[in-house]
User: What shape does this take?
Amino acid sequence: MTLEEYISSHSTPENACLEAITRDTHVHILNPHMLSGHVQGRVLSMMSHMIRPKRILELGTFTGYSALCLAEGLAEGGRLITIEHNDELEETIERNLNRSALREKIDLRIGDCKSVIGDLKDELFDLVFIDADKREYCAYLELVYPLVPVGGFILADNTLWDGHIIDPAYDKDKQTLGLRAFNDQLKEDDRFEQVILPLRDGLTVIRKIR
Assistant: This one.
């Protein structure tokens, strides 16, 4: 048994709905590794339960797995808005969300994240999950900053990028460069406190402090 298998076997299992989404994503969708998966999904759910957000914003829906995990911790009457730019995934996402009783709490929007965020300028979100185009993470951070109250949280996925973040072989890779710029910006930005968790592909937990 590997350490990863041990961690998975000793974490709360995913429910039947999430199991079905995992299975169907691996069978029918290209790049199924983009799915958050069991352990990361439980971490997202746990963090959401700890924060008890009234409003969640997710950038990058993929097949809906992470949205459902985050929605588990919504406060009473809470709502999650999730944005996916790939309209070819819309039917799959709708089908997956409809498997769950949490569907009524989730608002799916198809379109470019930056454009859709612009339509949300009058809203506030206690929790934001960034998991979209890695080249745009710095731009996403600036766009969501005014939408998060002081004390609110932002989670950013893939911030270690399978180790590429420190590998010189990826010095010209645009996604790697985008993530490096994001990590470096956070390091110097006194508006936030942050910690990178070596979970899966790297998960940065950010708290807005000013």
Observations:
- The longest strand covers residues 79-84.
- Residues 164 and 170 are 6 Å apart (CA to CA).
